[in-house]
Amino acid sequence: MSSFLKLLNPLKSEKSSQHCNICNASFNLTLKPHECSECYTLVCSEHVNNSPTDDPVCDECLKGRIKKELNVEYTYHLSSLKKELSELKAFKSEKRKGIASMDTKINELIDQTRSEEKTHHKQVEDFEQKTKASLDQIKQLEEEEKKLKNEIERSQANTKQLKEKLVSVNGAQQSRKLEKTGLETEVDEFNEQETKLLEENQQLITYQRVRTMSCSKCHKTIKQRFKEKIIEILRFEGHEEMIASLEGEIKTGKKDQEEVTRNPCACAII
């Protein structure tokens, strides 16, 4: 086949043997020729599809092959689209029929709805009239009920007042009894406290008596030992001037405190 094509176009074959059939580049040691497996022309390595699994094909033949494949795909796709268009037209026709049927049903439903709406409107009017009559009757009953409640409340208020008066009388009597009992108890407690305080008072010795009954040494010892208690008693009795005097005496007498404590006298108060 290659020799047959060369015989048909010897000039082109002779020229192609020295230059690339696509870019017209001259072949040399670095730029070697490649023969196309379809048109049998020589092309350089830049314009040949030299796949390891397929025969070498030049760019022009490759373009032609791709174009044929695209034409086949286009024809198939166009046929598919025409078929889909035909199906869509049939589907559209069926849908139109369905829509027409639905329109008829919708119109029937609209007419039926209008008729039912009139009936419903009449029923609503009747119901509103009955409701109004019932509300008037309920209002009248509520007014009567309100009157009865007022009468009941007045009766309950009177009953409550009577009960409160009764409870007040009973409470007053009970309170008087409790007050009497409480007063008697308080009187007994006061008598006991009075007796106890009198007994304790007889046993106590006042600060003034301590001063007169003790010598100077014992008096200093008592002031040092019972300072806080004496101040508490004097403050309770209201003798603030004696507290100041006592504190002054204690401060000046701290030096001989040890001597006083070590050598107390034999006073009866100690």
UniProtKB/TrEMBL annotation:
CDD domains, alphabetized: FYVE_like_SF
UniProt entry keywords in alphabetical sequence: Coiled coil, Metal-binding, Zinc, Zinc-finger
Entries under Gene3D superfamilies matching the protein: 1.10.287.1490, Zinc/RING finger domain, C3HC4 (zinc finger)
Domain spans labelled FYVE zinc finger: 8-67
Entry GO MF terms: zinc ion binding
SMART domains per UniProt: FYVE
The keyword Metal-binding belongs to this UniProt entry's keyword annotation: yes
Domain of life: Eukaryota
Positions in coiled-coil regions: 124-200
Protein name per the record: FYVE zinc finger domain-containing protein
Native source species: Blepharisma stoltei
Taxon lineage: Eukaryota, Sar, Alveolata, Ciliophora, Postciliodesmatophora
